[in-house]
Design brief:
By secondary structure, this protein is an all-alpha fold. The protein has a domain of 95 residues. The chain is 76% helix and 0% strand. It is found in: Golgi apparatus membrane. This is Vesicle transport protein GOT1-like. Keywords: Golgi apparatus, Membrane, Transmembrane, Transmembrane helix.
Length: 140
Amino acid sequence: MVSFEMNDRKKIGLGLTGFGIFFSFLGVVFFFDKGLLAMGNILFVSGVSLTIGLKSTMQFFMKRTNFKGTVSFGIGFLILIMGWPILGMIVESYGFLVLFSGFWPTLSVFLQKIPVLGWIVQQPYIRSLFDRYRGRRVPV
């Protein structure tokens, strides 16, 4: 049996990633509050960096196949900071989807094991969406 040990750095990284998602959610709920969205982005990126390591993070974001997503995410963040949060979030969302689209197979397996969501994901229409990306490798 393989044991996945969580050291303190990874625990802090997962916490920062979770807080980043939470702050981003709050920023959207509070009518695209620029401060909350920026804080969410900073916490999310720093959490990912701590979770997978700085070298792996740099390799992931600087990979040639992820270049379009990295640039979109960065430009969206700059647009958000400049004062146009809705446009910034649209550009960031596109970059996020391009960057993390390789994680859909892992996410679909995880969602199928959750009691209520597993039943929803097993429905034919939703399952066809997840099956489209099955078999691809996780990018990290």
